[in-house]
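Appendix B. Chain record.
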Amino acid sequence: MKLSKLMLGLGFSLISTMAASSYAQSTVPSGCTWITTSVVSSASGAIVNTSCDLNGTSIATREQKYNRYSPSCSVTWVATGYVQSGSCDSAVILKYVTSSVAATQACYPGSTTTVQTGPNGYLNPNITPTQFCGQGCPYSVQPQSPYSYPPLKYTCL
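Structure tokens predicted for this chain:
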């Protein structure tokens, strides 16, 4: 009797593992837009607060401090299930989605590469996040300098 319960338990465990591995999580643009909620100016700079709104609901808020001594930018999440792509100042909010994918789908979280940009947004070498991180895998992009055509650091999430 105990052996049959053990075999039944192992069978259910195997089935649930197979079902879970046939779905993968990827990201798609959320569709939210940054809307300015407040601007505070002073002699030393300004603070701009924005909200990324989707159908009247805030997904994330952003505070940008413009100051010649210590400019900063930060994104605060209001809703779960979203991730930021790009630098804080030009952040695009992506939404996690679950899709049915073959169990062999591979993502490479933690992998990074840096590429040089050129005129009109061209990358040298010309790579896509899909080639580097895997098909449908989340990633972030961070400019590595404030100058024109900065190197971009891609990080697989």
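Further analysis of this model is presented in Appendix C.
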